[in-house]
Design a protein that fits this description.
789 residues, Ubiquitin-like (UB roll), Bac_surfAg_D15, alpha+beta, 13 helices, Bacterial surface antigen (D15) domain-containing protein, signal, membrane
Amino acid sequence: MLLARQVTAFRLVRWIAYCAFVLASVTSCTVPKKYQAGKPFVYKTNINIEGNVPDKLQMEERLQNQLDDSLKTRVISYAGVRRVLLKPPVFDTVNIGRSRIFMTSLLHSLGYFHPVIRDTFRIDTVGKKQYRAHISFTVIPGKVLRLDSIGYAFRDPELQRLALRQQDKSMLKKTEPYTLQKVSDELDRLLTVFRNNGYYKLHKEDIYAEVDTVVAALIDPTLDPFDQIRLLDSLRRKRENPTINVVIKQQPVKDSSRLKKFYIGSVTVYPDAIYQEEFDSTIHDTTHIKGYSFIYNSRRFKLPFIANNIYIRPGSLYVQRRYFRTINNFTSLGAWQNVDVEMVERYDSSRPLLDAKLRLYPAPKQNLNVSFETSRNVSDFLTTGQLFGIGLNGRLLNRNAYREAIQTVTSARFGIELGTNIIQTLQASLAHTINFPKFISPIKIKTDSFINARTLLNLNAAYTDRLLLFQSRSFNTSWGYEWVKGRRREDQDLVGQRWRKTWQYIPFNYEYTDVKKLDSLQKLENKISSYKFAFNDGLIISQIMSLSTGIEKDNKLTLLRGRVEESGALFGLIKRLELGSLARFVKVDGEIKHYINHPHSSWAFRAFAGYGYVYGKADTGSGQIVKENNLPFFKAFFAGGPYSMRAWPIRRLGPGSANLYDKPDTSGIERFGNMQIELNTEFRFNITTIAGIKVNSALFVDIGNIWSTEFDPVTKAKIPEASFKLSRLYKDLAIGAGSSLRFDFDFFLIRLDWAYKIKDPLFAYKNDGWFNDIRILNGQFQLGIGYPF
């Protein structure tokens, strides 16, 4: 039996962390330093936006950036307690006028029709020679100018045809706000369309946007106010909902070659190029493969393999997309550290040609790396490399195995997992991965629209010693595919944004775990019935599908991840395997993260949910066939620790509101479940910088729990409080909250978290578990490496 014990040193660290959190929460004051005595200086500048404006905080930040430099202040924070205003600029009313012009220009670029900016200031006298100037701007953006009609009027018929053909993908949409950025994006989009159709020499200065001249005058900052009134009167029907028309046109032709379609001429490839060296065909070897000319000085790469990865083909129309895809493809293969494609114009044939020179500069073939690392367990209890703790890694990388840019990685690891009893798990593992830069499949799969399509073969062996509980040996091998796919989203709120989806499909995943139970675990099996079925030899023959994607827009970042794994659907039909160690289950989990970033602070949100449906059977050895109820322990969900519910130690929360694990003789054992729900929120903010180390903090709230199927060891009856039920969700949810002190070394971050159990489902019978035994020192300290999510 394992008991949760606290040592004296651990309590001392808790005291230090708590004192640091109290110190960081003290209200700060701002003290000016090195100001010009006897002259007023800028102490603070505020911007207040009035009216119903979307993304008001973001607009306020952008307006702050438009302030004249002489109205900006530099504040240095020391431990979050003392703030120093260093060398504040002398106050001058001229700078207020300049700032108004800058802010007005920004609002015009964002499509605001007739902004009004009022300014006020006051000067406070502090002491004898300190004159503090407080400046305030009140901004009324006014009516936003919206797009009415969008048209194209190109002089060249072919350009007009291409523009109209792609009109549905325009960045300019009717009724959307008119902004200069959207107009610029539309010009870039059209330029890409033209270059993907052979117009190699067409540039952005060759096309322009013409807007409605009457309405355009209203956004001219130099226009006389009386003229604006006159124009407004002429547009009184548009006064409440002002609109603007945009027509994309072509500049007069100055260079006729810009309107010619180019084709690919010769393509010369240098697979092992050397910096500052020109190749001479009389010295180096040359050959021709699939229409490409190769000039090389070694047999380091297989030339047909390189030819298959080139997308610009002799005689074909120049397509900018294929040009960039060729560069990105060789860059992602990893065997070359630099890729350069030079296009040379040639006019000695019936049509303009582009001769391409593809220079590939090889990277070092092998790399040996020995490192000290930290890792964490996301959902699996035993999987190699997923335990939270510290480890020593050795890693050998071969970037060009078999002369086809096939990457192989051989790694060895020894690590320990840290828990309540300081060291609670020892682990050693050896792994070998082969990364093929293409799909290897018995059926032909078209991968032209995929990015970084690859086939992965993994071999992994591991040994885990969970002190006083069990020893396990495991072997894992898998064969799968990974690829990236990008697609433009046409939703109104996401116009111009690009979602990159990373897919992974593993059709064959084989895992076998051999478990040697120790006396402590065997005793626990008599008290926790689920342990009899969870901690056994485990065989998993599964397939896995996962997807991760993300989008970044302005100061917001959203990441999504989903994963599905099923085991035993086919091989479980073999009775000997099903009644043996083969686990049959379907496990689904998903996660979404959302970040809102500001200059000195940020909000971070995370939601995670997972469920495992178990439908296998087991032979107890006495001829009795029983139904399995829980996932294997190395596939189960758990909560608690520095990356989950931080008010609880790792694997010490749940299941549900059951008290089965909280009896005196079972309080220190692991808890795992078939289902998990978790919500996390953090407000992160900067404190100060000490000796180049960024000291930051955060306030956080964690909500969640796990659920499983449990039975009473005496009555053998099912414990309803341990299973998920929607009507009990409120009682079962645990809530923790606390603060954090973080030391950011740029290449890694040390995190000290202190959290309290705000709502403990164990005490759901008493006030639904709210604020049970809340004391100053009755919190939970967590040491983490990196951000929790």
